[in-house]
């Protein structure tokens, strides 16, 4: 790695950090109904939406059961609508290339994927979807699914601040509308203009016809790309308009757009942590959690970038220079865009998996074994900032486990933010924690022995196993990116990944909301000299250690069978 490469990484992270501070405070104002400078613009829009839904239902207080039920019902209705749009797009408008309706099993997979903020794609966007489908079935749920994760996290935070026994954790519809209209929509609109200025298409035309040097004709697909790209990254969604995703020059045309898209993936997940500190009236607590997540980001990001810059023995054996120089990128450029190079590709790959977005500007399947392994880590832990809302909740799960372990060590009843953590809370936290590895490891094990699972692998041995493990890890973590060597558009993988997406998304949310209801019903215990403070550097280190130890015990065995085994095989020459 050159000093210039580390400088690029450092500047990107620094800018993301600086943006997250005012954004976190603005989010807290939106969530707590405090006045903002934009109220004059957004209040009339909000009121119109309240009128359409029903003002009474948008103003009533909801406990955890009502909040969760309305969230699930709304998501179900939207999923059905998305399925119908995809399956019957040949009967709908704005289909200039006359695409047929999507095959039902694939449409089911896509509907589940996009309503859950996963955006896993078993299809090629520009060769499968009409412009109407791209807008109504893809771009629209990118707003609502992103908002769902955020508002659930905000309802959970309120459980530690309310004094009414949990009768009012907010109103799902009001939260949904305010976050969409006051955060996502204005930001997406302004940023779309920037992307259009940089060369991203925004049109309803079918495409442009180009004449090649040999005299042939080539149709270049176009569509409403810029509007999709902004919310795709801002909402940590990840699904691309084109099959090549952010590696396509229409989705990511310049170094500036590459930087902007990386920052968009960073800003909301990191801002939510600071919003948490603002909401509970303890900024120090927010900064401690921010520090825990940032420490893991700095720890795992080099695992992706450094091995790619180091290259592989096969490249060296072929006489290819693997040392970076002024006019030579060195390293492993396989699967990477020359216009971005190794550093920007590796940084993007790390950010998109650590923040569980799923957008890619290079092919992860072509990464070195250790570089590829680095892309697994964030999705397996889910809380190296993670996706917005979901990553924050995953971090709190580990925090509560850390408090419980510390309480056992000192012989005191554990408390978190003034609420006692007892058996019911630990049961719910344990269920939340166990679902994630279960829905990853069980279908992975089945797929690598079942003939219909093995038949879809693009590679044999350890790398083929890694492709399958990545697919289910990405699905469970609401990430949606793929190693790309796996043919995921089969009946088995469409149904299996859809099931993993559902189980990885909704049961953890239900358990966390039940936990919110449980702690909200408890009185807040005043802090004493014997209280274990969770807003200290010491507990932050313990919090970090809990995440790393639990994560390692859960997932290292699975990684040993894939990328780690492949690394040692590569080093010993067994792969060549």
Structure, described:
There is one protein chain. This protein has a domain at 3-206 and 219-281. It has 576 residues and is mainly α. Helix 1 crosses helix 10, helix 7 packs across helix 8 and helix 7 packs parallel to helix 19 (491-520). It is 64% helix and 2% strand. Strands 1-2 form a two-stranded antiparallel sheet. A two-stranded antiparallel sheet has the order 3-4. The two termini are 25 Å apart.
Quick rundown:
The chain is mostly helical and 576 residues long. Helices cover 64% and strands 2% of the residues.
Using DSSP, what is the number of strands?
Answer: 4
Total helical elements: 20
| Averaged pLDDT | 93
Task: Report the portion of residues in β strands.
Answer: under 5%
- The termini sit apart by 25 Å
Using brief descriptors, characterize the structure shown.
single chain, globular, 576 residues, mainly alpha, two-stranded antiparallel sheet, two-stranded antiparallel ribbon
Give the topology, please.
Blueprint: H1 3-31, H2 39-53, H3 55-59, H4 64-87, H5 104-115, H6 125-128, H7 131-158, H8 172-197, E1 207-211, E2 217-221, H9 225-234, H10 255-279, H11 283-310, H12 313-317, H13 341-354, H14 369-381, H15 390-410, E3 415-416, E4 419-420, H16 423-447, H17 451-454, H18 461-476, H19 491-520, H20 537-572
Antiparallel strand pairs: 1-2, 3-4
Helix pairs in contact: 1-10, 2-8, 4-5, 4-7, 4-19, 5-19, 7-8, 7-9, 7-19, 8-9, 9-10, 10-11, 10-13, 11-13, 11-14, 11-20, 13-14, 14-18, 14-20, 15-16, 15-20, 16-18, 16-19, 18-19, 18-20
């Amino acid at each position: 790695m050159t000093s210039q490469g580390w400088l690029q990484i450092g500047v990107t992270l620094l800018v993301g950090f600086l943006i997250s501070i005012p954004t976190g405070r603005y989010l807290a104002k939106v969530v707590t109904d405090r006045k903002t400078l934009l109220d004059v613009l957004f209040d009339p829009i909000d009121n119109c939406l309240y009128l359409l839904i029903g003002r009474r239902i948008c103003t009533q207080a909801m406990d955890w059961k009502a909040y969760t039920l309305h969230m699930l019902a709304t998501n179900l209705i939207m999923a059905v609508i998305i399925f119908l749009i995809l399956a019957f797009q040949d009967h709908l408008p704005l289909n200039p290339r006359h695409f047929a309706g999507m095959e039902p099993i694939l449409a089911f997979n896509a509907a589940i994927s996009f309503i859950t903020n996963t955006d896993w794609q078993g299809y090629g966007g520009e060769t499968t979807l009409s412009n109407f489908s791209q807008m109504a079935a893809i771009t629209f749920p990118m707003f609502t699914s992103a908002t769902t994760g955020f508002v659930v996290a905000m309802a959970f935070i309120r459980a530690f601040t309310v004094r009414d026994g949990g009768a009012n954790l907010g109103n799902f519809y009001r939260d949904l509308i305010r976050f969409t209209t006051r955060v996502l929509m204005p930001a997406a609109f302004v940023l779309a203009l920037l992307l259009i200025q940089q060369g991203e298409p925004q049109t309803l035309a079918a495409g442009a016809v180009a004449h090649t040097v040999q005299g042939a004709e080539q149709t270049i697909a176009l569509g409403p790309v810029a509007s999709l790209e902004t919310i795709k990254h801002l909402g940590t969604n990840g699904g691309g308009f084109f099959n090549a995703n952010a590696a396509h020059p229409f989705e990511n045309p310049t170094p500036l757009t590459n930087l902007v898209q990386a920052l968009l993936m960073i800003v909301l997940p990191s801002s939510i942590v600071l919003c948490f500190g603002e909401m509970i009236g303890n900024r120090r607590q927010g900064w401690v959690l921010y520090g825990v997540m940032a420490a893991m980001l700095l720890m795992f990001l080099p695992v992706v970038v450094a091995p790619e810059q180091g290259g592989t023995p096969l490249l060296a054996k072929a006489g290819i220079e693997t040392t970076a120089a002024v006019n030579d990128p060195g390293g492993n450029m396989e699967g990477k865009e020359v216009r971005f190079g190794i550093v920007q590709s590796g940084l993007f790959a790390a950010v998109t998996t650590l923040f569980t977005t799923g957008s890619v500007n290079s092919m992860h399947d072509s990464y070195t074994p250790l570089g590829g392994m680095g892309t697994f880590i964030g999705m397996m832990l889910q809380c190296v900032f993670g996706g917005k809302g979901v990553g924050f909740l995953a971090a709190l799960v580990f925090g509560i486990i850390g408090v419980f372990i510390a309480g056992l060590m000192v012989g005191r009843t554990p408390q978190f933010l003034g609420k006692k953590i007892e058996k019911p809370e630990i049961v719910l936290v344990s269920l939340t924690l166990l679902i994630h590895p279960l829905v990853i490891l069980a279908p992975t094990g089945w797929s690598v022995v079942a003939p219909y699972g093995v038949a879809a692998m693009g590679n044999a041995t350890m790398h083929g196993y890694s492709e399958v493990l990545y697919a289910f890890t990405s699905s469970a973590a609401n990430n949606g990116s793929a190693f790309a060597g796996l043919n995921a558009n089969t009946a088995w993988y469409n149904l299996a990944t859809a099931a993993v997406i559902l189980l990885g998304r909704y049961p953890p949310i239900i358990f966390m909301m039940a936990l919110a209801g449980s702690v909200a019903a408890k009185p807040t215990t005043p802090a004493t000299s014997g209280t274990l403070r969770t807003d200290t550097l010491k507990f932050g280190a313990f919090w970090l250690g809990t995440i790393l130890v639990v994560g390692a015990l859960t997932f290292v065995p699975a990684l040993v069978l894939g990328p780690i085994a492949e690394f040692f095989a590569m080093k010993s020459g067994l792969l060549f």
